[in-house]
């Protein structure tokens, strides 16, 4: 159950990386609980209209103090926690940048945990001797959007957060609950969290469904979810009900074609890659990925997160879960 208002523990220094509606609303949520929050926009545009506070409307309303940093290194100075909130297809580049400048031993939460992306950060930090704890959230804590008049609207809070991590699970669980006031349920490693992430599959379903036909998008999403569940069974994993992913935030968010193509392609290529590795047929994902490739005019099968992680690392993850 979500709890708003001041937290009971000591205030934490948090850097939120990603200044879209979800990242900014998550920063405001953490600030509403008394935490010291710095917001960083990877592209610079998301924070240009933010001064010393974020004004939030909707489920939680008010002005909440948030600092803005134009420099990633400065945003990370002295932090206890990092929350990375960008779409899956934009994560790899930002994680590589983060790995070059992160110091100390903060807890890092990546949302969504797309295509094993949090494991990439852990792998890149290792040679630098940085002992950060890295976890992946299946979904961000909030559903938020910009209204036509520019106001930031918080439409929903998650009732629970699902966390995947391969180490320091109690620490990361406590951290997420302290930051956002939402109960956290640990999962069976990062592969579970990545398979449970439905954001990219939802984008793909909306992009491929007939315009103005949300029921067709949901039917297509259910077909993707069936293939996802078959993969989870192949690797011996239990996942939360796929229907809850969007139901608890009031449905699929409005589609943005550029995001949908990037994030949808990433999610489908993840399923296709796992299908090949696990010898599980995923014909709907295969066909949908081919359609998105036609839209994009290029191949989308090379999953950038898995490529950056490396074939040996990916095989190691799958071997640990092979039934």
Question: Can you give a write-up of this model?
Answer:
InterPro entries: G3P_DH_NAD-dep_N, NAD(P)-bd_dom_sf. One of its GO terms (molecular function) is oxidoreductase activity, acting on the CH-OH group of donors, NAD or NADP as acceptor. It holds the Pfam family NAD_Gly3P_dh_N. This is Glycerol-3-phosphate dehydrogenase NAD-dependent N-terminal domain-containing protein. Residues 14-104 form the Glycerol-3-phosphate dehydrogenase NAD-dependent N-terminal domain. The longest helix is centred in the C-terminal third of the chain and has 22 residues, at 257-278. Strands 5-2-1-6-7-8-11-12 form an eight-stranded mixed sheet, sandwiched between helices. The chain folds into two domains: 13-192, Rossmann fold; 198-321, Orthogonal Bundle (N-(1-d-carboxylethyl)-l-norvaline Dehydrogenase, domain 2), CATH 1.10.1040. It is α/β, with parallel strands linked by helices. α7 (199-208) crosses α10. It contains 13 helices and twelve strands. β7, α4 (117-125) and β8 (133-137) form a beta-alpha-beta unit. The mean pLDDT is 94.
Count the helices. How many?
13
User: Which structural category fits the helices and strands?
Assistant: alpha/beta
CA(first)-CA(last) distance: 34 Å
Poorly predicted tracts of residues: none
Largest sheet features: 8 strands, mixed
Q: Total strand count, please?
A: 12
CATH class of the largest domain: Alpha Beta
InterPro entries: G3P_DH_NAD-dep_N, NAD(P)-bd_dom_sf
Pfam families: NAD_Gly3P_dh_N
Protein name: Glycerol-3-phosphate dehydrogenase NAD-dependent N-terminal domain-containing protein
Domain Glycerol-3-phosphate dehydrogenase NAD-dependent N-terminal: 14-104
